[in-house]
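Q: I'm writing up a methods section and want to include an example of the input and output format. Could you take the sequence below and give the corresponding predicted C-alpha cells, formatted cleanly so I can copy it straight into the document?
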Amino acid sequence: MSQTQPDSTSVAPTPAGAPNSAAAAPRRGRSRRRKAAYAVLVVLLLAIVGAIGYFAIPQPNLPEASAALVSTPMVRFAREDGRLVFAPASGAPTTGFVFYPGGKVDPAAYAPSAAAIAARGYLVEIVPMPLNLAVLGFEGATPAMAAHPEIRHWAIGGHSLGGAMAAQYLSGHPGAAEGLIFWAAYSATDISTQPIRVLIAYGSLDAGVASYAGPKALANIPATPVVLVIQGGNHEQMGWYTGQPNDPPATISRADQQAKVVDATAALLESLGR
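A: Here is the clean output for your methods example:
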C-alpha cells in the first residue's frame, strides 16, 4: 500500500508567535488613522483655545472708560449681576436703554457714553458678554429688564456685533422693546414688522458703512429709521477704547463723535416717552 505524500504546494503553518502580515496590515492602517485623528483633534483644540484667548482679552480701554465708573452729582452708578448700570442722580426714570458691547470690547469702554445718556434722565444698563462676544449672551436683556420693573419704555441696542445681537434678541422677543439703537451696526434678521423706532448712527469713515444703511439692512427693519452719519467719524470712536483692527483714522475728535451719538440716542429715548 503506497503512502500518501504531502502536497508540495501546501503552505507551511505559521509558527506560534510569529507575525501574520495579512492581519497586521489592517492594524497598521487603523493605527495610522487614529494618529491622524488625534493630530486633527489636537490642532482643533489648540485653535479653540487660541480663539478663546483672543476674544477673552478685549481691546485696551482709554482712561476715560474707567474714570466714568463712578457716581457723580448727576449720575448714580452701580453694578448689578455684572451689568454696569447708570441712572440719573435725581428723579425716577421710566425709560431705559439696554446696551450690548461690540465684539472684543470691554463693557466699560461705553461707560462715558452711558453716563452722559443717564444724565439726560434715562436708565442705561451695559450688559457684559461671555468672551466679549454678544453672540454668546444676546439673551442678557431679559434679566436686565426684569431687574427694573419701574421702567415703562425700553430701548435695546449696541455697538457693532452688539447691535446686531440686540436685533437678534428682538427677533425672539417681539414687543420686548419700543426702540432699537444701532451704533455702527445693522440687523441680520428680519424684524421689519415690529412696531419699533430705530436709530442707525455711524461714522462716515467706518469700513462697514455699506452694511449699516444699505438696501439689505434697511429691508430688515421698520421703515423710516433715523439715520445719523457722523462726518469724519470711524468705528472705534463709538466707544472709549483703542486698537480697532482695520479702522481708518477719524478726522474728528472722539469727544465730538461721542457727543453726536449721545444726542441722537437721547433723542430716540425721548421719543419713547418718560
